[in-house]
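Input chain follows. Return structure tokens only.
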Amino acid sequence: MNMVDIIYKKREGQVLTKEEIDYFVTGYTDGNIPDYQAAALLMAIYFRGMNKEETYELTRAMKYSGDTVDLSRIKGIKVDKHSTGGVGDKTTLIVGPLAAACGVPIAKMSGRGLGFTGGTVDKMEAIPGFRTTVDAEDFIHLVNDIGLSVIGQTSHIAPADKKIYALRDVTATVDNLSLITSSIMSKKLASGSDAIVLDVKCGNGAFMESMEEAVELGELMVEIGKADGKKTIAVITDMNQPLGYAVGNSLEVMEAIDTLKGKGPADITELSLVLAGYMIYAGEKASTYEEGYKMAEEALESGSALKKLAGFIEGQGGDPLVTENYLLFPQPTCHQDVIADRDGYIGEIEAKAIGLASQHSGAGRAKKEDQIDLSAGILLLKKVGDTVKTGDILATVYGRDSEKVMKGAEEAGRAFEVVEDRPEKEALIKKIIK
């Protein structure tokens, strides 16, 4: 078996065998297959595609390219939640406590942000003292004791994905359905949970911009998850404007806390309750999704989910007083308002543009090694459909570097479209796949 034959076979549109896929993944991860041959195969896959069996075998090979996490010592059915990436998406910090407060053990590994989407690990590091790295024993203890732990993903989980994704990123082969699916699901399946709830974003601020693409991705990921023995549910959700009002690390954690206090934006509250409802159902703490949703609502209204968040923060070395005193978060030293220059209604807020503006204000990174400003970000004051008068503040950009804040404000201003007629409201929850 050799790479030239495998590249030729896929170039001609033929189906690769399990052995051929294993040969590629193992050889490339180990450094025995050079970048130029791996890039040629990825391009052939990009143009010729993979069927469901090939996609499953690629996911499986990537899953087993490194360590797999054993969570068997954690009591109960462990449920993971994954978002395909969005702007202002802080749902992990809300749904984790909601589901855990209802008895579902949450043992989650999350990543950092890159580009215009934020990373949960970066958000958590805005909490003073919070540790995103704990050893395996402490991780298991925290979940058994508190019901919830979220840590940074180690390099030992699906190392093939890290190496293949880096090559995809520089060879224009990122947006292929099978390659996206194998990248996401290899990490999720290696992380050890018994069930997975997927939040598949759809719109101008998502990798899947069309409904058709998002549904196709959701269906494929659900099939792959089920084939691996995991109960898997995908929720297709809107990402044609940022979620909530806050975009940026400290700002998003504060909004997540507000949401658990019952004072959050309507969209982030509703999405969090839906996702938590499915997690509670997948964790078999509810016999139906509807029952799970109601349990999540009760955890929100009673304050038990907020207490769970405080316990989770304290368990990982953070200061639980941040749930009451937001001045404990990193504070910006400068800000710039984005002002409306006409009357009308907000017709569109381009989510990707807001995400990039937040990144450029200092809240995100273009390269993995970039340092971020945890105080930086954007606070929206208007959402799609809201009435606007000339001179109204549409958003405020925060940070510690005045030049970056000014640049972010200029970019954020271009994300808003003011129209004469009030637009129709987009559905937040578009489709459920299970």
